[in-house]
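We close this part of the discussion by returning to an individual protein. Part of our work consisted of pairing the sequence of a single chain with a tokenised description of its backbone. The amino acid sequence and the backbone structure tokens for this protein are reproduced below.
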Amino acid sequence: NADLVIVAIPSGRIPALGDAVRASLPPGAILVDVGNYYPDRDGHIAELDQGTPESKWVSNQLGRPVVKALNNIMADQLATAARTKESPDRVALPVAADDDRARSVVMALVEELGFDAFDAGSLDASWRQQPGQPAYCSNPTRKELPPLLERADRDKAPVSRDKGLRLMSRLPPDFPSDRLVKIARLSAGLDLWRPANWFAALALAAALISGKSNAR
């Protein structure tokens, strides 16, 4: 009897969820896909490797329309980065869907969580908020987000995505997420003038070097 279900499992396990969703989810219930595809973790999925937007594939697997949202922000940042509407650094999060009603409901939820909800159009455009793109985990403001989505590069993203995951796997588990956000903002061309972001990049390099030395 759920009105809204958030799907937050690895992409490789999505097909196993299809029968349960089709059998038990009531008509009109909204499915929110907050996941991301990482081949190193999920195994290679041919359709996604060929460029099908992740949420289009998820929708096909589950047999229901889905909304793509909350996938381009680190999990703990959902709690720590929330701000009031008046805050100048309030983070904007894209929401993509083919159903206008479902998109509106999820956008309202995003606003309640403490973020600016941005209408990112249909699921066909949701690849712009996937891993490896400038809007991914860079915590942009409402002014910053649209240009980042426009700059998304479909061909280059998989290389950036896989490189980012491999770097993350070499970091200590307690490496602060706020430093990762600063580094993501630098990579997206944001806040190049802020010393704190460059210090975060140095901290990342030091952590990687330390991890490599410990592995030896």
About this structure: Residues 195-215 form the longest helix (21 residues). Strands lie at 4-7, 30-33, 66-68, 92-97, 116-119. The mean pLDDT is 93.
